[in-house]
């Protein structure tokens, strides 16, 4: 019987995280949890109290800032802890705002049928020029969330503008084809170990970039033989997401808000979309907004 590793990044709503952990608690799974170092008063014993069948590991934690290299660091810490522990059939990266929307029996059977495939989302055939700027230039202020600091946000834009004027281009001499997509994935043991083997290159290439967590894995796969193993070998954002995304490539149901350019917070309004979906995981759940949809999903997967 193959085992799976659940890699979870959490930074708030820890009562909900307890429910997520319980939802993936299964003798066929081990759970690796990264808690943002900025989170305070986290009761680890309380988080672990409903875990009876899986092994739960708290990995080395870092301060995570949105869009900064620290997001990659936390992912690599999770992957590295998992591959040191065992050889898993699959490694699933989830956020602390996700839930499985299928039972563990269904999920394990799905990956058994598709064994060896990589579940990674690619956004477009070629990275758009403005997206490629994320890695072309240096992005300072790595210890700040620029979404909430207008001064640093403006300063960073001016710094990028200056780099353009003086001709800085970090990737000018690179032969690598960069790619991007959703940072949430389900990957095989082979790819997980290959990614960790590339840690020095990842740090050199993506440190001081913006939103590099949406670039590094796709770029690694694009420039390797793992590209042949993609489950959904298409560039699917524009083809499939105009009326609401169904992310078949990485099996994540994410209802995208094109106005705010953020995932829609799931509520009972999305009940039928979630229940009728043939995907495996969904995000984003916000307990302060709607607890009923969370309970409905949990009842559904337990019943199945």
TrEMBL record:
Highest taxon in the source lineage: Bacteria
Keywords: Disulfide bond, Endoplasmic reticulum, Glycoprotein, Glycosyltransferase, Golgi apparatus, Membrane, Metal-binding, Signal-anchor, Transferase, Transmembrane, Transmembrane helix
InterPro entries, alphabetized: Glyco_trans_14, XYLT
Example of a GO cellular component annotation carried by this entry: membrane
A Pfam match: Branch
Membrane topology listed for this record: Single-pass type II membrane protein
Gene Ontology molecular function: metal ion binding; protein xylosyltransferase activity
Example GO biological process: heparan sulfate proteoglycan biosynthetic process
Subcellular location: Endoplasmic reticulum membrane; Golgi apparatus membrane
Name of protein: Peptide O-xylosyltransferase
Organism: Lactiplantibacillus plantarum (Lactobacillus plantarum)
